[in-house]
Structure formats: C-alpha cells, structure tokens
Amino acid sequence: MIAGIILAAGKSERMGSPKALLPFEGSTFLGHLYALLKKSPLEPVRVVLGAHESRIRMQVELQGGDVVLNPDYEKGMLSSVQAALISLEQAKPEAAILFPVDHPNISPALIDRVIEAYRAGEGEIIIPLKDSRRGHPVLFAASLFDELRSAPPDIGARHVVRSHPERVYELQTTEPGVLQDIDTPEDYRRLAGL
C-alpha cells in the first residue's frame, strides 16, 4: 500500500489567491490532482488543508476521511507532511508520494513509473529528474517517515533526501510538469499558455 499526499495548506501569498483553486484542465489544481490520485493505485489518499480551508472545501469535492487539517501550516510544507503522516499511522502504508498542489501537471503514467521504480527496489526515495533537475512528486519509503517527522522545519523533506544520497533514485522523465512550480501569476500564465 502506497499513500498519496496532496499538500495544499499554504497561504499562496505570492499568487494572491489560493493556488489550490486555480483553474486547470476543466477543474482546479486541487480538483485535478485529487481526481488523478483517486483513480491511481495510491491508497489511502490524503489532502492536507490549512489556509483557505473553508473556501477550498466549498469549491472542491473531497471525501471527508481524505482531508487532514494542518493547524500549523504557517510553519511551512514540512508541517503538512508531518500532519499527513500522523493521519496515516493506522493505515501503515509502505511508502507515500508527496504531491505539492502547485505542481498540478502530473500524468498517471508518471505516478505509475514512480511506483514501479520503488517496487523494483531502485531506492527508498524516488525523485523525478528532468534536464538534470529534480522535481515532484517525490516518494518516501516508510523507513524514512520518522526522519520526516523530526526534520528541521527550515529545511524540510530536503534534509532527509540530503542525509541519504545512497537511498535516492532519480527517475528520468521528459514530463515538463515535474518542474512546473506555479507560485506566481506569471508562472500560472506560462502554464496556461496565456
């Protein structure tokens, strides 16, 4: 069992409006990713909300058990990862894939390839690599969950990645979405081809 975690708790200050609700592929960033994960082999799925929680819940149909509220979202993305891991303790997944909501342009095939690389024993951390640059989503094996829980908040999950270079597998891909980090209105216009 490999869990899927969508990280959608941030304030979206540079965007000026909730990134989770930006229109994308006939839905929203969050709606698109959520539908993608629910159709994928990932189970269970968690969506971490914080800032704009009530507005997002009103506009995106989410199953109640899939939602995790992060009251500490102002502490950064790692706090959302940690909130999700707490919610998964009973399910005991063997790994989890982290999907930042501002990287919506992810294909089902990429998710399958990340899972396949993990199942083949390629590494305990699977990171998509395009043009020699690391992107998202990133898989972490359950053997690293405790380190994610205790990582320095200012460095986040990168701390775990840097601590274990020998356990990292870089999954080569040509998909542009792994590097498309949508933080500003200009980023969004580029994504939308405007």
From TrEMBL:
Record-linked CDD domains: GT_2_like_f
Molecular functions per Gene Ontology: nucleotidyltransferase activity
Pfam families (UniProt xref): NTP_transf_3
Signal peptide: none
Origin superkingdom: Bacteria
Residue intervals passing through the bilayer: none
Domain MobA-like NTP transferase: 4-166
PANTHER family, per the entry: MOLYBDENUM COFACTOR CYTIDYLYLTRANSFERASE
The protein's name: MobA-like NTP transferase domain-containing protein
